[in-house]
Every structure is written in structure tokens, then in C-alpha cells.
């Protein structure tokens, strides 16, 4: 892109008056509402705990930007819509982002090099070292010396979920799903996926309601359920170590209907409800119900559903007979049979409720994945290595957790309590403000015409009522 040298921007006149714009407003930010996210972070402790997942081999005497500040700068940047490291060449001079990163020299007056004066935070090259440090980096490495620990990061996501509950729930549902992460370069692990018809990664997500427990980047040259048992086992063990009596149900589409996973659930007192791909044997099993549904449709001219609860075992792939629920549905376009397999007891939930009320509710998880990909750039995996791209996915996940906590606690009871992350960013966090820095305070003079003052005040009260994390 050509570098801009224009200083005055002229627009259509207003009556006889000229309309001009200049980038000379002084210390002004467009992201003043992010101080709400900072208060959320102070109470959840996401940044400090993410920093504990790294080993920093840099010489402490030569560091201007501690690890926590680098992570804060990156995560808050993603939360506010700045997905590229290049954006931080300008954001590093924004005093508000210095406040978000808990940098006391908010105006960058104490920087060592003259060219960095006025920029309190790190530039793109320094931030890049977070992602590009190889797993075998050490103190003798030349530049990239900040190494993350995969196991620690994975445990952190589950810990944050567990701490979101003041008391253990009686039961929880873990939703599993995969999605495509399109690739447009020659990144490590790049493969063509026949279903999505593109080169992509195939990340695995596990949610519990709105809470994110797993975001695992995977290559696309494997089964969609590959590795899911390892992730489920790890998560269930971590949850039960804290909540030994909680009832856990696993939910997913037919891509996760694998005997290995179902058998593990059965032997570890975990309920499951997953889709089951239809075949001729299954359709024959509900042939009578399909005829009943067709008859109802012909009479009412509306979609008709009839359910059947039965026992079923595959010819070769299953190790046991299992409960299957068939949905015999007839639409204007014709027959539409669907099936799920579950070990939920019949006395706990009948077939219709299992399918309509429980299984179909898993579609809400897809909205959470879309939030991360559309608004928090979880698909911004353009680094050369999978290790770097996995870290980008986790940074996106941390930004999601901050925004989800703001929505769950700060915006509860307002018109924004079910808003998506992009809407929250636009209406609650994107506020213009003048910044005044003195010895005693950093003053944000927010735009007087901001239309969501009541929601902002409500969120502020609710967040400050949360206990600070020591």
C-alpha cells in the first residue's frame, strides 16, 4: 500500500462552510471502552496466567517489554479488532493501550532509544517473537527466546471455565465440533479437504455453553474426530478433579460417532448424545414411522415428525448395542430421516426430548465458533508454522474469554446480554475519548454523544462488584 502523505482531507461543503479533516487531534483514542475489558482481566487474571504458560529466556537486564505486557498488547488488540501485528506500529503510541498493558510510562518518555520515544509499547517485530520462537529455543538463541508450553495453555482454558462458576453445577454438557480454517499460503500442515473443497486447517473446539475449553489446531488430512478422545479425556479428568460429582454429557454431530469415544464414555460414567449417519438398516428400522409422518404431512401440509426409540448395533464398527433415536420426518421436499445415538437413560429423557430439546441445542455452539472466526480472527493463521498458528488461535481464545466474561457478568440484564462479540465491541468498547495524562491520573474524556451510557454504567458497576484476583 502506498504511504499516505496527505494531511488535509476535504469533503463536500456544509452550506458555505468548508468541511475538512486532519489527523492532528492530539491524544485521542477510538477504543476508550476497553477499560471495561481491563477491569474484567484484573478480576479473571487471564494475562498473568497466560504469561505463566511461557518460558522467557531473554536477559532481564535488556528487556524493555516484559512478557505480560506483550501478551496484553496482543490479546487486547485482537479483542478490539486489530488482528495484524502491523497494526501495533501505530497502536504502540496509543496511551490507552499502554494502560491496558499496565505500562506505567503511558507516553513512552522513558524509552531507551530516541526513535522509540513516544511509543510506550512494543512494535510488530518484538511481538512477532512470541509466535515465532521454536519449541527448542533457549537462552543461547539469538532473537526468539520466548517459548510457550502447550500443556499449560490447554489446562489454562479449562481452569478459567471452572473458576467461572461460584459453586459446582450439578451437570454440564460439553459440545464438540470442528470447522474449516482456510489457508491461502503454503503454511506447515497445509492439506486439501474434500468436504470443504479448499486448503485448510481443521481445528477442534470444545465448549460448555458459552465457555471455551479447547481450541486445538489440526491438519485437514485426517478424520474430523481425530484426537478428540485425548482432548475429552484430559478435560473430563481436569473437571472431575475439581468437581468430582458433576454429571457430564458429551454432545456432537455424526462426525464424532466413533466407537472408541462412545466406549470410553460408557466406561467412565460420561453421558453422550451424538449424531448417527443414516444407512439403509436404520431407515428400515423406522419405515413405519416414516409412513406415519408422510401421512400426517399429506393431511396437514406441514412438516411432520414421528420418533422411534430402539436398540441398534452396527455390523462391524461398534463394540456394543446402543440406544438410538430415529426421527422420521417428512417435509415438502420429501422424507428426511435423522438419527442420534445416546446412553442417556430412557427414564431421564424420552426420545423426542433427547432429539428436539437436547441434541438440536448443540447448534448454538456454532455461533460461538463463528464469533471467534468472524470477530476475533481465530482463522488468521497465516504464519509459516503450525506452532505459531496455534498460539494465534489461543490469543484469539483469550480475547474471546475476556469478551464473554464481559457479556456474561457486565452486560447481564441489559439489551446486550446476548449480543455477539462484534456488536459488543462496536457499541460498548469503541468509544472516542480524549486522553490527558498527569502525575496523578490518566483521564479519559469520553464522547458526550455516546448513545450507550446507561449500558456502560451498568457494566462498570457489575464488573467492579467482582472480586479482584490476588
Give structural notes.
This protein is of the alpha+beta class and 470 residues long. Helices cover 37% and strands 20% of the residues. The protein is built from 16 helices and 19 strands. It has helices at 34-44, 46-51, 67-79, 88-91, 95-100, 124-132, 150-163, 228-242, 259-267, 280-285, 287-300, 351-358, 363-375, 386-410, 421-429, 453-464; strands spanning 8-14, 17-22, 28-29, 54-56, 146-148, 171-178, 181-182, 191-193, 198-201, 204-208, 211-216, 247-252, 271-275, 304-312, 322-331, 334-335, 338-342, 433-437, 442-446. The strands form 5 sheets. Strands 6, 10, 11, 12, 13, 14, 15, 16 and 17 form a 9-stranded mixed sheet that branches. Strands 3-18-19 form a 3-stranded antiparallel sheet, with no helix packed on it. Helix 1 packs parallel to helix 16 and helix 3 crosses helix 14. The longest helix is centred in the C-terminal third of the chain and has 25 residues, at 386-410. It starts with 7 loop residues before the first strand and ends in a 6-residue tail after the last helix.
Mean of residue pLDDT?
94
As a percent range, the share of strand residues is: 15-25%
The helix content, as a percent range, equals: 25-40%
Sheet of most strands: 9 strands, mixed
Q: So what's the overall shape?
A: globular
Question: What structural class do the secondary elements suggest?
Answer: alpha+beta
According to DSSP, the number of beta strands is 19
Measured on Cα atoms, how large is the radius of gyration? 26 Å
Number of discrete helical segments: 16
What is the rounded distance between the termini?
46 Å
Low-confidence stretches: none
Amino acid at each position: 500500500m502506498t504511504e499516505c502523505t496527505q494531511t488535509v482531507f476535504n469533503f463536500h461543503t456544509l452550506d458555505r462552510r468548508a468541511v475538512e479533516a486532519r489527523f492532528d487531534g492530539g491524544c485521542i483514542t477510538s477504543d476508550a471502552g476497553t477499560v471495561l475489558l481491563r477491569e474484567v482481566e484484573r478480576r479473571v487474571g487471564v494475562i498473568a496466567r497466560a504469561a505463566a504458560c511461557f518460558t522467557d529466556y531473554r536477559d532481564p537486564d535488556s528487556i524493555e517489554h516484559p512478557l505480560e505486557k506483550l501478551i496484553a498488547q496482543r490479546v487486547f488488540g485482537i479483542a478490539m479488532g486489530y488482528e495484524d501485528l502491523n497494526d501495533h506500529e501505530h497502536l504502540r503510541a496509543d496511551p490507552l493501550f499502554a494502560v491496558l498493558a499496565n505500562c506505567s510510562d503511558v507516553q513512552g518518555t522513558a524509552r531507551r532509544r530516541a526513535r522509540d520515544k513516544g511509543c510506550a509499547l512494543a512494535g510488530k517485530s518484538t511481538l512477532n517473537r512470541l509466535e515465532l520462537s521454536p519449541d527448542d529455543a533457549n537462552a543461547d538463541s539469538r532473537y526468539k527466546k520466548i517459548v510457550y508450553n502447550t500443556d499449560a495453555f490447554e489446562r489454562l482454558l479449562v481452569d478459567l471455565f471452572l473458576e467461572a462458576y461460584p459453586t459446582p453445577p450439578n451437570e454440564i454438557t460439553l459440545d464438540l465440533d470442528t470447522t474449516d480454517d482456510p489457508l491461502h499460503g503454503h503454511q506447515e500442515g497445509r492439506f486439501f479437504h474434500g468436504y470443504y473443497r479448499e486448503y485448510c486447517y481443521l481445528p477442534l473446539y470444545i465448549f460448555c455453553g458459552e465457555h471455551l475449553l479447547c481450541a486445538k489446531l489440526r491438519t485437514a488430512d485426517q478424520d474430523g474426530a481425530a484426537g478428540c478422545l485425548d482432548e475429552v479425556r484430559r478435560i473430563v479428568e481436569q473437571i472431575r478433579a475439581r468437581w468430582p460429582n458433576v454429571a457430564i454429557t458429551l454432545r456432537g454431530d455424526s462426525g464424532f460417532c466413533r466407537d472408541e469415544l462412545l466406549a470410553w464414555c460408557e466406561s467412565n460414567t460420561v453421558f453422550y448424545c451424538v449424531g448417527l449417519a443414516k444407512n439403509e438398516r436404520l431407515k428400515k428400522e423406522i419405515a413405519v414411522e416414516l409412513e406415519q409422518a408422510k401421512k400426517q404431512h399429506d393431511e396437514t401440509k406441514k412438516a411432520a415428525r414421528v420418533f422411534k426409540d430402539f436398540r441398534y448395533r452396527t455390523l462391524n464398527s461398534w463394540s456394543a448395542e446402543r440406544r438410538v433415536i430415529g426421527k422420521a420426518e417428512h417435509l415438502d421436499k420429501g422424507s428426511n430421516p435423522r438419527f442420534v445415538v445416546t446412553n442417556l437413560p430412557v427414564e431421564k429423557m424420552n426420545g423426542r426430548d433427547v432429539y428436539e430439546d437436547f441434541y438440536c441445542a448443540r447448534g448454538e455452539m456454532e455461533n460461538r465458533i463463528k464469533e471467534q472466526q468472524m470477530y476475533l480472527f481465530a482463522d488468521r493463521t497465516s504464519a509459516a508454522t503450525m506452532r505459531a498458528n496455534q498460539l494465534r488461535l489461543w490469543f484469539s481464545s483469550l480475547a474471546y474469554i475476556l469478551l464473554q466474561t464481559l457479556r456474561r457478568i457486565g452486560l447481564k440484564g441489559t439489551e446486550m446480554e446476548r449480543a455477539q462479540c462484534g456488536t459488543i465491541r462496536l457499541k460498548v468498547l469503541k468509544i472516542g475519548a480524549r486522553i490527558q495524562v498527569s502525575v496523578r491520573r490518566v483521564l479519559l474524556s469520553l464522547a458526550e454523544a455516546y448513545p450507550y451510557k446507561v449500558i456502560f454504567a451498568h457494566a462498570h458497576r457489575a464488573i467492579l462488584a467482582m472480586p479482584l484476583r490476588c
